[in-house]
Design brief:
This protein has 130 residues and is α/β, with parallel strands linked by helices. The protein has one domain: 3-Layer(aba) Sandwich (Rossmann fold), CATH 3.40.50.1380. 47% of the residues lie in helices and 15% in strands. It has 6 helices and 5 strands. Strands 3-2-1-4-5 form a 5-stranded parallel sheet, sandwiched between helices. Helix 3 links the parallel strand 2 and strand 3. The mean pLDDT is 92.
Length: 130
């Protein structure tokens, strides 16, 4: 499965802890991330990650384009709901595309954990049939 990993600045440490905790599961999948998030995850976990631009520089839109082309199966986007983001329209567009194309999306660690455990069990395999 192709999995996108995105985290706002104040959530990057959470994403690193999360990917470290589930490294065995993530290592079995193709990973994509926005620039800084991807670099930090690579440095901390050694996982292979295709990196797009940083979110504010278009990385969110690049991942959105993959979703629109049915090239992304799961998105984990640890958002910071308490800090205004200069690229909020891009964030909203990405979330909308996940809804339009029925791509599972977690915007916090709790939901991400449910999705990753479902991924491990094979509960998200239906995406391959779409």
């Amino acid at each position: 499965m192709k999995i996108a990993l995105i985290a706002h600045d104040k959530k990057k440490e959470d994403m690193i802890r999360f990917t470290t905790a589930y490294k065995d599961i993530f290592s079995q999948h193709e990973l994509f991330a926005t620039g800084t998030t991807g670099l930090r995850i690579q440095e901390e976990t050694g996982l292979s990650i295709h990196r797009f631009q940083s979110g504010p520089l278009g990385g969110d839109q690049e991942i959105g384009a993959c979703i629109a082309k049915n090239e992304m199966d799961l998105v984990l986007f640890f958002r910071d709901p308490l800090t205004a983001q200069p690229h909020e329209p891009d964030v909203s567009a990405l979330i909308r595309l996940c809804d339009v194309y029925a791509v599972p999306l977690a915007t916090n660690m709790g939901t991400a954990e449910v999705l990753v455990k479902g991924l491990k069990r094979g509960d998200i395999e239906w995406r391959k049939m779409v």
